[in-house]
Amino acid sequence: MRLRSAFALLLAACLLATTVLAQKPAAPAVPKPPTSDDCLACHGDPSATGANGRSIAVSADKFGDSIHGQSGLACVGCHADLAKTTDFPHAEKLAPVSCATCHDGPAAKYDTSVHAQARRASPTSVAAACKDCHGTHDIRPASDPDSPTHHLNLPATCGRCHGNADIIRRGRIAIGDVVTEFQDSIHGQALSKSGLMVAPDCKDCHHAHDIRRKSDPASPVFRTTVPATCGKCHEGVERRYLTGVHGEALGKGRPDAPVCVTCHTAHRIQRTEGATWKAQVLAECGSCHPESIRTYRDTFHGQETQLGFLRVAACADCHGAHDIFAKSDVRSTVSPARLVSTCRKCHAGANDSFVKYDPHADRRNYARDPWLFYASKFMEALLIGVFAFFGIHTTLWASRAVKPGETRSSRPDDGPRSEE
Ligand code: HEC
Ligand code: HEC
Ligand code: HEC
Ligand code: HEC
Ligand code: HEC
Ligand code: HEC
Ligand code: HEC
Ligand code: HEC
Ligand code: HEC
Ligand code: HEC
Ligand code: HEC
Questions:
Q1: Which pLDDT tens digit goes with each residue over 390-416?
Q2: Are 361 and 372 in contact (CB under 8 A)?
Q3: Which atom of ligand 4 lies at the shortest distance from residue 110's CA?
Q4: Residues with Cβ within 6 A of ligand 1?
Q5: pLDDT in tens, 324-353
Q6: 247 close to 325: Cβ distance less than 8 angstroms
């Protein structure tokens, strides 16, 4: 019984103690974090400057319109080292803002990028950090037309560095100004002039956060990944390319197989009707198929294109552009079964005998065409013979003509006589 009452007493004492403790005001122990208004009391003044004269003004309106202002984030959400500060003014130097505390997904991707690598390697690097692409107090989602990451604005955002000669030099960006090139390309024009949301901006080919060098196999612009990157939009072309000889050679790991950008370039992509581009791609085919372009140059089509007339047949007009096959393959546009219809695209009257004309006739190749070989040899011999004969003739005549005292003009009876 004594034990029981002692226990009850102890219990009552405990209860009393807890109640008293609970009633103690908590406020002084955990200070309330400063609100944005607290900060804006000083920073809201547009003329506010720090010790070294730099502006420390923050526009309350711009911040209010930003995604963070809109979602009720306070200044100390980002300037976290001031979250427990009560006495102002605060320390002069504050910790840099870490966006990663709330956005770990994009931050983890960014950490693998060439930009993050460059910044880790050198604290003075001019490579992009979060705020270079997103801003600081005026951050908006990419869907907002005023955001620097909006589809139509991104080329200019990357262009602040990749189109800036000074940063290209300081950041040692080997490829140079790609942004001016891109703006003039079919894709750049589609964005800036036609406002085409389905045309690619930089991130569609490079990603937004995990941007890597083209030599990095994980990059979307790594050589063997390029067809898939372009193929996100040009799926039909990618599929044709992959079935053709070039796609097949790429699949086999051949380092000399062309990918989309070998023929089209990466940032200077043009509409494929233009004469300049046609001439360029012809030269490009020739850089890997030197024999074919040499023999082509000897033919009517080749000579015309060399003069700049591109209405005649260039390589792709006969072979196709993406689904190119060896001539022995029945799918080839130059296979015996399909050749007539290929020439008929331009020569309406083409028939079996017309296509006997060899578009790669090679006068140096006996095996390919003995007639042409001998005809060409005969023509060469004739040409040399004619030149040799007239060369000797002229030399002999000239030596006779300059003999002193025997020139026609030195004779007294030379020249036209007057009638008087
Ligand atoms: C009493 C005025 C005052 C208040 C209130 C105030 N600041 Fe400041 N703040 C300053 C001054 C002055 C500087 C400039 C310090 C310097 O460069 O000498 C400054 C600088 C800063 C900087 C730049 C620091 C750096 O490392 O360059 C940040 C960020 C900042 N304040 C954030 C805040 C935030 C967030 C709040 C609210 C929690 C806040 N301030 C409240 C006066 C104030
Ligand atoms: C989304 C995060 C974020 C929020 C929210 C935020 N800031 Fe900042 N603030 C930054 C970043 C990023 C910088 C650039 C310096 C750095 O990287 O640390 C910066 C810099 C500053 C500076 C230094 C001057 C300057 O403009 O570079 C001041 C002052 C400042 N902030 C005040 C404020 C005030 C006041 C608020 C609230 C109204 C606020 N910040 C809210 C991210 C933020
Ligand atoms: C604040 C400046 C800045 C911005 C903005 C910027 N970059 Fe960069 N970028 C750099 C610098 C500097 C390098 C060179 C880093 C190095 O190699 O050390 C670089 C490197 C690159 C590389 C690798 C190039 C190489 O030479 O290996 C690519 C690709 C790239 N950036 C794409 C982009 C894209 C796409 C955007 C826009 C979404 C962008 N960058 C925005 C500064 C910037
Ligand atoms: C080189 C430019 C660039 C840099 C640097 C960059 N971003 Fe982005 N970020 C973008 C672009 C472009 C988008 C829009 C992506 C889209 O529309 O698919 C984006 C989207 C976002 C989004 C919204 C979509 C999402 O993926 O959740 C967040 C959040 C974000 N970035 C945070 C960050 C943070 C945090 C950092 C720094 C660690 C950072 N970004 C660095 C360009 C950049
Ligand atoms: C304290 C947490 C916090 C910090 C720190 C923070 N953000 Fe945010 N951020 C948010 C919230 C909350 C949203 C709005 C909700 C959402 O849409 O994800 C947001 C939205 C965004 C968006 C738009 C996302 C979208 O859906 O398109 C971007 C971009 C962004 N933040 C970038 C940044 C950058 C860059 C920094 C660093 C300068 C930063 N944030 C720092 C919390 C934060
Ligand atoms: C249609 C796809 C596409 C678009 C859009 C695009 N690029 Fe590229 N970019 C590439 C490809 C592919 C390469 C690799 C080129 C090569 O292999 O010669 C490349 C290379 C680069 C490089 C050099 C990378 C290295 O490692 O050397 C930089 C920097 C770059 N691009 C920046 C940009 C910027 C900035 C934009 C936006 C203005 C942009 N690119 C738009 C496809 C694209
Ligand atoms: C061997 C060079 C070469 C390669 C590799 C190549 N193209 Fe082409 N591409 C051409 C030529 C030549 C044309 C013009 C065809 C014509 O005039 O009929 C063309 C045309 C196009 C067109 C316009 C539509 C059309 O067919 O006329 C698109 C789009 C295109 N290419 C995208 C791509 C993509 C995407 C890839 C990679 C999957 C690629 N190209 C690979 C040479 C090439
Ligand atoms: C985000 C989608 C997208 C990606 C990725 C893309 N393109 Fe395009 N491309 C387009 C659109 C849309 C057009 C049509 C623009 C127009 O007609 O104004 C176009 C046009 C073209 C043309 C001109 C076609 C013609 O009619 O002559 C070529 C060539 C081309 N792209 C090649 C490429 C190559 C090569 C790549 C990869 C390095 C690529 N594209 C990546 C969307 C894309
Ligand atoms: C970057 C080098 C490169 C470029 C540019 C290139 N090719 Fe090829 N081409 C190849 C390779 C590699 C093969 C596969 C040869 C093999 O299998 O032995 C090939 C095969 C062919 C074949 C099949 C005949 C054969 O020898 O197997 C034809 C036809 C052909 N290419 C035509 C073209 C045309 C037309 C163009 C321009 C529109 C072009 N090529 C541009 C590298 C190239
Ligand atoms: C007027 C149509 C025509 C033009 C233009 C043309 N070709 Fe051909 N090409 C043919 C025909 C037909 C054959 C098959 C003839 C043969 O070798 O028996 C052929 C054969 C080839 C072959 C060998 C194919 C194989 O399977 O062995 C290659 C490679 C080739 N062409 C590349 C080119 C290149 C590169 C160009 C541009 C410089 C070009 N061609 C221009 C019609 C053309
Ligand atoms: C893209 C269109 C085009 C294609 C395809 C084409 N040609 Fe031609 N070809 C021309 C043009 C244009 C001329 C110049 C005609 C003229 O000036 O009368 C020409 C001229 C010729 C000539 C010399 C002039 C003549 O009319 O006799 C021959 C031979 C010829 N082509 C054969 C072929 C053969 C064989 C093929 C198929 C393997 C072919 N061409 C495919 C456009 C083409």
A1: 888 888 888 887 766 544 444 444 444
A2: yes
A3: 38
A4: 34, 38-39, 41-43, 50-51, 56, 75-76, 79, 82, 88-90, 92-94
A5: 999 999 999 999 999 999 999 999 999 999
A6: no
